[in-house]
Amino acid sequence: MKFRLERDVLADAVAWTARTLPSRPSMPMLAGLLVEVADDGVTLSSFDYEVSGRVFVPADVDEPGRVLVSGRLLADITRSLPAQSVLLSADGSRVEVRCGRSTFTLPTLPVEDYPALPEMPSSSGSATGSSFAEAVAQVAIAAGRDDTLPTLTGIRLEIAGDESTLAATDRYRLAVREMSWSPEHSGLDTAALVPARTLAETAKSLAGCDKVLISLAGPGEGLMGFEGDGRRTTTRLLDGEFPKYRALLPSESATVAVVDTSALSEAVKRVSLVAERNTPVRLAFSGDEVLLRAGAGDEAQATEAVECAVDGESVEIAFNPTYLLDGLGAVGAASTRLSFTSATRPAVLTADAGDPAEAPSYRYLLMPVRLSG
Asked: Does residue 120 lie in a domain region?
């Protein structure tokens, strides 16, 4: 096996494929990166029985072949090489990486023990990389991180015709994003629960693609794939019943406040400096302002007022400041609309489009923190 490739191209391909390698592989071979060289180029692959990654890049090939090397080590090496062409060759149980006056020799892993990667399911439809990445990022912030509740660590993807809905919740907040996409076949109506971390990393890595193919395997196969610009990822789906989240979204509100997103975010950051761990920030909406308060008694205290337009009854409510900042950042608009039913019920954050009758594409529902007294 022997081929030549520019450093930046090789380093980018290796880093992209190695990003899904397990930090603690159950078997040594799963820490490896599979390098397959054909006459027209190089395919790099990774697989841990849950997530697979594969990328193809054209290369100057002298000799086809197939080897398995440590993925993270190869990623570190290619990233540190000088900006010149890289010659990678295999001889017996060693792989040599030569670039300029730098030479590295790596041991190989037994390639015959490496598992076969899953086949990419047939395409279900597509979306632009930027819109797909934005939608996933908006929702992924609300996914749970507690592995003892695996169902909540996923993002539910619902597909109905040319509309798709993504939803995630960790029981304290809920994020829902509706997105248009281009289905391969009309009448498609299905749903899947995708691991949030894998979906977020994949969508981010494919954000620059003009077109991302989204592939969902048939019932019972539990597999989903994403592909763009010669890069593809497959992931096993999560089992379990996702909460019936639509029932949590209120149909009406007693108070609506519209506030400058940046001004409120900066105020929350400042006021929460005096809030100890797990201590909420209080927000009192009335008239033409929202008053933020944190700290109490003999502790450090902070207050700040931010202008806003309040329509409806005055309301005082408290939130976890980190969760509130996550929502304000995900809304992605100059002004945020906060809708309340009461101080003990969840609030809904949406982008302020100027027309209250226009249905928002993104909603971030946040549970309040109950205040003593």
From this structure: no
